[in-house]
Amino acid sequence: MRYAIRKTIFYVFTAWAAITINFFLPRMLKGDPVSAYINQHQGQISPEAVESLKTLFGLDEDKTLIQQYFDYWVLLFKGDLGESFSKGLAPVTEVIGNALPWTIGLVGIATIISFAVGTLGGAYIGWKRGSKADAIVPVTTFLSAVPYFWMGLIIVSVFSNTLGWFPASHAYDKGAVPSLTFDFISQVIAHGFLPIVTIVLSSLGGWILGMRNQMVTVLDEDYITVAEAKGLRPKRVMLAYAARNAVLPQLQSFAMSLGFIVGGTLVMELVFSYPGVGKLLLDATNSKDYPLMQGLFLIITLTVLIANILADVAYAILDPRTRQSEE
């Protein structure tokens, strides 16, 4: 219970600090969203409309910064993240909601695949340390060292331009209407295949190397020797004893990866012109759309916190020593 209370207090404080920084940071930048909106429309806005816009964006000059801060919290509890002026004053929640499924579906699937394959592969390579399987490590490490954009361009050149097997850009065919039909789903899969392959190849080496090194360390522990002396099957020793303990540090990294899924992979989305959150954040930054930037940063921050909470819970369940060390 004390472990749970300490973790709860820590994450509540972290969430408050992140939201507070998210409120004050845009207001410390040069300019404001109202001025950017006026410049975008070449000043053709009446003074009354300017005052309305300041109220809309929470920049009412009649209120102090502290009052604006409390108003921001009230809006947050109502689920109101403001309006995006670069998207025609559409609600920020709606704009983010349209881009979020694409990023979660694409980067999420790629992250889970690379983690699963890398962890299982690393466990096997570590178990067979010194064998020919070790040759996989430098190959995947080399692929991880190749920049995202370069890897993506190579894959597009080979599988799209040369072979013509997969489309090179966008999330679905031009002119297609999103729907839950077999034709549209097949388009999404075809368009998402090359970006997923790019992410998996670029991140697989880290998972394999990390798990392989952890396995080598764990195999020198006394409980592994005892398990082998009992005559247990090698497969059981590898999975139930060695891999179970070696995977614990991987879980923390996996949780961080899940958290950053919402942030998307900006370079990958630019290479493949994919309509994800990363590209949306870049567009919001270029247009100085502070409400949209603020909403995106908030969603990304809270997602990372939630992912870390889930990692702590999984870590505590798999390794009771974690709870005991903090009691």
| Percent of residues in β-strands | under 5%
Specify the CATH class of the largest domain.
Answer: Mainly Alpha
Which CATH architecture of the largest domain? Orthogonal Bundle
Amino- and carboxy-terminal Cα gap: 9 Å
- Residues in helices, as a percent range: over 70%
**Could you please say which CATH topology of the largest domain applies here?**
MetI-like fold
The topology string of helices and strands comes to HHHHEEHHHHHHHHHHH
- Structural class estimated from helices and strands: mainly alpha
Shape: flat
Largest beta sheet: strand ordering = 1-2
Which stretches are poorly predicted, pLDDT < 50 over at least 5 residues? none
Secondary structure tally, helices:
15
Estimated radius of gyration: 24 Å
CATH superfamily of the largest domain: MetI-like
- Arithmetic mean of pLDDT: 77
Number of strands: 2
Total discrete domains: 2
Largest sheet: 2 strands, antiparallel
Main location: membrane
Membrane topology: Multi-pass membrane protein
Domain ABC transmembrane type-1: 100-311
Subcellular location: Cell membrane; Membrane
